[in-house]
Design brief:
single chain, 271 residues, alpha+beta, Rossmann fold, seven-stranded mixed sheet, 8 helices, 27% strand, globular
Length: 271
């Protein structure tokens, strides 16, 4: 079983150097051993909730290692949020999901949190009520409203990523943090653009289109517009953040890993 560790990278070259010096991090046999240990132990050792029964579903470990109805990556987000807020239940947090098990836990741990969904039609807004609709490109909140924004698998689905990052910066207080997970093209300097929205119409650049789960539109899913890469750090700087890093977190006891690497990437951008 691996020892937990966390590294912060600000450039692709730093991560490539790390991987070259630690080849075990992507060794299939080692990753299989990690998963086998998780399955045999039968629990994830979460910081907030103690030991929780774990299930391993399929081979997409980033999504399939679960406890309390949540992918283990959600515990990484929560740990970083707690680190930033000091676990202060009165912290003002915007969580960009509102219909998931993670959102339910967020409301319990952070009673002041606003947990939202993207529901652009009136029918959808009525259906998800009292969960509010929030368009991360253009929110309804005043500048400097939040101590933190938590985003779990959202940024691959927004058609205008630069605009979304700028809006997140606007509504964060000074020293506030954007903490986000998303599929990350770790080997690529520039994001992989799969689709664009032009004049209200979607243009697919890569076939077939890729869709992920969407609790608001479960039959339709959510279209992947891009797979972010290392240039998201430059995008954060251009959006007005004072600093931005990709954190690489590996912890088998908490199930924090993915199929091809022993760790998970999390964006942390500081206002």
């Amino acid at each position: 079983m691996n020892r937990p560790y966390q590294h912060a990278f600000s450039r692709r070259e730093q991560f490539i150097d790390f991987i070259q010096r630690h080849p075990q991090s992507r060794d299939p046999a080692y990753l299989s051993e990690m998963v086998r240990g998780i399955s045999e132990r039968g629990v994830l050792r979460t910081r907030r909730f103690g030991a929780q029964p774990v299930t391993v579903i399929g081979s997409n470990y980033r999504e399939g290692i679960q406890a309390m109805g949540m992918p283990a990556r959600c515990f990484a987000l929560l740990d970083l949020l707690d680190e930033h807020t000091g676990s202060n239940p009165n912290a003002h947090v915007l969580c960009l999901e509102g219909l998931t098990a993670f959102a339910s836990q967020m409301r319990l741990l952070y009673p002041q949190a606003i947990c939202s969904e993207y529901a652009p039609t009136q029918e959808e807004q009525l259906r998800i009520s009292p969960v509010p609709h929030v368009d991360v490109h253009d929110t309804q909140f005043a500048s400097g409203s939040f101590d933190a924004i938590i985003s779990a698998e959202i940024f691959e689905h927004v058609p205008y990523l630069n605009k979304a990052l700028s809006e997140c910066r606007r509504i964060l207080r000074p020293e506030g943090q954007l903490i986000a997970t998303f599929p990350f093209a770790a080997g690529s300097e520039r994001l992989i653009q799969r689709a664009v929205l032009e004049n209200g119409e979607v243009k697919h650049l890569i076939q077939p289109p890729e869709y992920h789960g969407n609790p608001v539109r479960p039959e339709e899913g959510a279209l992947v517009f891009q797979v972010p890469a290392w240039d998201i750090l430059d995008q954060c700087q251009n959006a007005g953040f004072s600093s931005a890093q990709m954190l690489y977190i590996s912890d088998a006891e908490r199930g924090i890993m993915q199929t091809e690497l022993d760790g998970l990437f999390v964006l942390r951008a500081v206002a």
